[in-house]
Prior knowledge:
By secondary structure, the protein is an alpha/beta fold. Helix content is 47%, strand content 17%. Strands 1-2-3-4-5 form a 5-stranded mixed sheet, sandwiched between helices. The model has no long low-confidence stretch (mean pLDDT 90).
Amino acid sequence: MERIPILKMGRFLLVTIQVDMHDRLAMTLQEDLTDRIVKDHAHGVLLDISSLEIVDSFIGRMIGHIAGVSRVLDAKTVVVGMRPAVAITLVELGMTLDGVSTALNVDTGMAMLNASLEEREQLNGGSQR
């Protein structure tokens, strides 16, 4: 079965989707990513969708669901590289991707994750989970 690689980068996980996303692959990614967040005690997920030319309503919901599950597991999700056509399609479908932060590129997305982690650590008195 085809799988999307999940790379560990410090306290974050990087997911770069380089293939056409179909429903079964999206569900497998969700399961794999959930397992990795727990296993690696990840504080954030960077989801690079720059290779996706089309996102249907199911894939859009899965992105939102991945972010929701990550949030429950105390990991922030940032989606990067969304093409204008994908953004337009999501808006036309009435999808807002609540709870999903977005950035134009990986550098900005990683900066967002780092800033979020620093803020959380300051609120917790510098403690880590």
